[in-house]
Amino acid sequence: MSAELSRFVRFGLVGAINTALTLVTFALLTHLDVAAAPASALAFATGAVNGYLLNRTWTFHAQGGAATLTRYVAVQGLGALCSGAGIALTTTDLALHRLPAECLVIPFVTLLTYTLARRVVFRPGGTRPVM
């Protein structure tokens, strides 16, 4: 398996772990009577922190720091915006139901966030983006 494909698979596994962690955290917090909105925000933050740590150390073997964390947060924010916009587009303009729409949007957002993580957030060997 090529190094790039291996990184992409690890990126996908980290995403799956983050999703599971987010759902478990949300379930636990709501079980403890935390309101749904703050429970969701805290659960998402838990998954995001886990994603940063695992992607930095395992997926990309990169250095950390404030600048890397800032870039990571920006890319995750962009991914969330693209996901929301994609769902809005596919459920209204294409009249897809929510689950098929999500299944259509996820691969595009995953490729976008992987590419940005690889070239901008955890870029190898220096401060300039890899092009």
TrEMBL record:
The chain crosses the membrane at residues 7-29, 35-54. It is found in: Membrane. Residues 10-122 form the GtrA/DPMS transmembrane domain. It comes from the Bacteria. Its main location: membrane. It is a multi-pass membrane protein. GO terms for biological process: polysaccharide biosynthetic process. Keywords: Membrane, Transmembrane, Transmembrane helix. It holds the Pfam family GtrA_DPMS_TM. Coiled coil: none annotated. This is GtrA family protein.
